[in-house]
Amino acid sequence: MTYATIEASVAEGRPYFLYQFVEGEQVWRFTSRAAAWTSAGSGGTEITWEPAAVAHGDVVQTSEIERGRLELTWPLSHPFARRFLAPLGNAPVTLTIFRGHEQVLGETVAHWKGRVVGAEVEGVQILLQAESIFSTLRRAGVRAKYQRLCRHALYGRGCGLDIALYWLTGTVTAISGTGLSVTIPEAAAEPDGWFRGGVLRFGVQLGFITGHAGAVLTLSRPMPELATAFATPEIDPDTGEPLPVLLDIAPGCDLRAATCAAKFGNLLNFGGFPEIPGRNPFGGSSIV
Question: Which pLDDT score is estimated for 34?
């Protein structure tokens, strides 16, 4: 008996679902089954899917983008779902749902794929909203903007700067209760605002820096992994002392031509037009 045979039957199907979330190099896997499920991975490895009280709405095929969204329901107490109640990070979180049948365990098909775009609390549940991967095909592509500020993303393709040359390693000495403020003494060596708009890297996790004053950096959203590492640091086996929590930070940019030239020496790649006249030459009035 195969998946296709059961899927085509009238009443023989007993479906279960596997949910795979990917953010950068991090992967989370859950199953709607009552017990943990193990499947075969590449190279003979085994993949474990954690049981969770998760369910999703009906998958529909439609030409309307908004109707193609999918909603996942989680318990309010589930730690994975709660992380989406904070602002989303820079890296997208993709979701792939696999569908199988109890009669042919081990044989699944990709049922739906998209990315998480938001979350909200409804009663004792958390509702995750996800949009189909096909919705991106209906959007207008990014085009160059005629603007005074630079149109390129810092350290991106148009900017051309190599972020590896700008990383500064620092030691975490304090984290606020909300997790949004991180104290790094090495950041105080630069003037206030130097790291605003920059990047904080802890392991494979990336955070966006929205503020910099002295040794304190403000993040756009908490980084639970960093907070956990600071609260329960690793212990040096030789001395028995806690090991310092290290991370990397890279400076930000306000996208102005003067900053591009003075801070990064990258004016040749500046993507803005700072000399745009203040009055519209096509507005019907004289600009002289």
Answer: 83
Is residue 29 within 8 Å of residue 17, measured between CB atoms?
no
pLDDT by residue (tens digit) across 65-115? Answer: 555 688 999 999 999 998 888 777 667 899 999 988 777 767 788 888 888
Conformation bin of residue 70: beta by default, left when phi > 0, alpha when psi is -120 to 50: beta
Distance CA 73, CA 71 (A): 7
Mean residue pLDDT across the chain: 86
CA atoms of 127 and 119, how far apart (whole Å): 6
Name which of 46, 65, 228 is nearest 132 in CA terms: 65
Q: How far apart are CA 215 and CA 192, in angstroms?
A: 9
The pLDDT value given to residue 192: 96
Rounded distance between C-alpha atoms, residue 153 and residue 160, angstroms: 9
Nearest one of 203, 197, 211, 196 to 228, comparing CA atoms: 203
* Residues in a beta bridge with 21: 28, 95
CATH topology of domain 3-138: Pnp Oxidase; Chain A (2.30.110)
Per-residue pLDDT at 133: 78
pLDDT, residue 68, reads 64
What pLDDT does residue 39 have?
Answer: 80
What Å distances lie between residue 47 and 36, 39, 110, 119, 233, CA to CA?
10, 5, 16, 27, 28
Residue spans per domain, the chain? 3-138, 167-250
Tokens of 46: 């085994």
Please give the Cα distance from 65 to 63 (Å, whole number): 6
Q: How far apart are CA 48 and CA 139, in angstroms?
A: 36
